[in-house]
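Technical annex, item 7. During the second reporting period the consortium partners agreed on a shared format for inverse folding records so that results from different sites could be compared directly. Each record opens with the tokenized structure and is followed by the designed sequence. A conforming record, contributed by the partner at site C, is shown below for reference.
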């Protein structure tokens, strides 16, 4: 009897699962084997009326109105035993949802209005290998924000297009292999690069780095012969007259800088737009450029001063001119000793 009852329950569950799978695939796009489900742009505010097939491996819920701030919504995701890729881009999350998914390997939370990168304790000992938090509003990341991922298998992390100026958190990601920090607010290469650990690829494109000199972590790479590293630096505000060391570095370690052939000077003006690989520091005349600037500024300031003085003098002369129209010069009287206090009419003189 129990055997028949168990079989009946299994049949009911299978039928229920099939119905659910058909329902979700009417709303979303599903692969034939139901391992990939795309529910992008469906206007979803919650998952109350949706059940996903148990064999889904990749689930995308891009551009909805999901927050995952209820246990029910999170349970719908956590109950998928084979889920490895979860993409929640363009949802108003604001914080990282506290999922507990041991099978998850890739998590994408791009453009979700995140202001914090703190991972909840539920991610402790997770299987995450890749994370993307790009296109958010993260100003800073504390050293402890990624602490629960310390023992994870995380190898790739993207923080592109945020507002970061430092990266102390790197020390808590010992297995990290690649980090993307493009379009942030770095003004120099952070000191954490001096102890790269297992990181082999750094990207700092589209930042505000102006000077790369002998104090840069790249000098440590050079001294320690870290030839298996790659760093990408295009579209920064490089001052070539203050980066002689880096220009020489490119001559001997060209392969370390991934896009070295595209790097250009932003300043000073006489080098703006020139490729760094075409420059020879021994032939760059930066001193003259520096001394010419004050001279040019002085000439321009003097010219502007002359114009201002001329305008003021002309204004004063025009203001005084009408006041003298009623006066007549009297022969034999020296103006230096004072003339009449009021205008003299022709009748009074006669």
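Designed sequence (site C submission):
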């Amino acid at each position: 009897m129990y055997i028949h009852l168990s079989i009946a329950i299994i049949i009911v569950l299978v039928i229920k699962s099939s119905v659910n799978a058909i329902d979700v695939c009417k709303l979303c796009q599903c692969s034939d084997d139901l391992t990939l489900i795309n529910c992008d742009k469906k206007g979803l505010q919650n998952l109350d009326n949706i059940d996903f097939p148990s064999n889904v491996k990749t689930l995308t819920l891009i551009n909805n109105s999901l927050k995952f701030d209820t246990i029910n919504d999170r349970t719908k995701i956590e109950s998928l035993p084979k889920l490895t890729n979860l993409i929640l881009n363009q949802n108003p999350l604001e914080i990282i949802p506290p999922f507990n998914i041991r099978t998850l390997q890739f998590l994408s939370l791009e453009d979700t209005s995140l202001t914090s990168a703190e991972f909840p304790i539920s991610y402790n000992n997770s299987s995450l290998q890749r994370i993307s938090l790009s296109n958010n509003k993260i100003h800073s990341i504390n050293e402890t924000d990624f602490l629960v991922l310390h023992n994870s298998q995380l190898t790739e992390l993207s923080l592109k297009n945020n507002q970061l100026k430092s990266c102390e958190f790197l020390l808590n990601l010992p297995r990290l292999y690649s980090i993307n920090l493009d379009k942030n607010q770095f003004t120099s290469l952070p000191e954490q690069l001096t102890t790269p650990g297992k990181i082999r690829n750094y990207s700092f494109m589209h930042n505000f780095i102006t000077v790369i000199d002998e104090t840069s972590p790249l000098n440590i790479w050079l001294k320690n012969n870290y030839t298996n590293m790659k760093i990408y630096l295009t579209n920064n505000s490089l001052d070539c007259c203050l980066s002689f060391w880096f220009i020489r570095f490119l001559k001997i370690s060209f392969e370390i800088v991934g896009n070295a052939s595209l790097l250009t000077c932003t300043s000073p003006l006489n080098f703006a737009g020139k490729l760094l690989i075409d420059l020879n520091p021994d032939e760059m005349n930066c001193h003259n450029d520096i001394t010419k600037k004050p001279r040019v500024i002085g000439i321009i300031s003097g010219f502007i001063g002359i114009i201002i003085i001329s305008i003021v003098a002309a204004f004063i002369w025009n203001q005084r001119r009408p006041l003298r129209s009623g006066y007549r010069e009297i022969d034999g009287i020296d103006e230096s000793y004072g003339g009449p206090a009021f205008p003299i009419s022709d009748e009074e003189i006669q």
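The two ends are 147 Å apart (CA to CA). Residues 286-320 form the longest helix (35 residues). All partners now use this format for quarterly exchanges.
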